[in-house]
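Readers of this paper often ask what the protein records in our data store actually look like. Nothing more is needed to write down the fold, since each code stands for a local backbone conformation. Below, we set out a record of this kind in full and without editing:
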Amino acid sequence: MRIALFITCFNDTLFPGTGRAVVRLLERLGHTVEFPAGQTCCGQMHFNTGYRPEAVPMVHRFAEVFAGYDAVVSPSASCTGMVRDNHAVLTGVEPPRVHELSEFLVDVLGVTDVGAYFPHRVTYHPTCHSLRMLRVGDKPLQLLRAVKGIELVELPEADSCCGFGGTFALKNPDVSTAMLADKMHCVADSGAEVLSAADNSCLMHIGGGMSRLRMGVRTLHLAEILAATESDTEGGTV
């Protein structure tokens, strides 16, 4: 199977370690992952803020760069949803098939135990795009439950939005901050050491708030937990 990593511009710029974790994880499962260097933005930011004509060249670029791959895998439910639901709306052409990481592991590869080891108390936030747009269901939780050493705890009101929503947090800061406060309260109630999710954008939003309050809870993308092994823990890298 010829697999490509669609890292997304957000992760590439701010969280490159997440992309490396995806590659490391899939290689551990016996697959070779290619990184097409010509990939750019999927156009979500433009599409969501009304600049749809400006997004069209990005959509065409995406189709060109990822043509010919058997599977395109992304550590972003948000951008995966943009490609799957909106690229064809803009151009009338079906885009290459993109899988969010947990979908790819569970539905395509048929695995839940990926050989991970992460001895920490973790709770999981199902981001809006993964929950409502992609409908990944409990696939991330299936993967987390199979991680050795983990203590997976429930997040109260897990399906509530964290208040980020891209430019929503900028245009509606008071509402966004109130939603964030509710989410942080739920994280605190869970007693978790680590908050995980399928989108670093939401983790950045929640993590920033928790850091300012010195809550002592860190954020980590699902891919980085699944890529962790016992040797990583012994070396203090996760």
Summary: The longest strand covers residues 71-74. The chain has a mean pLDDT of 93. The domain at 121-235 is CATH 3.40.50 (Rossmann fold).
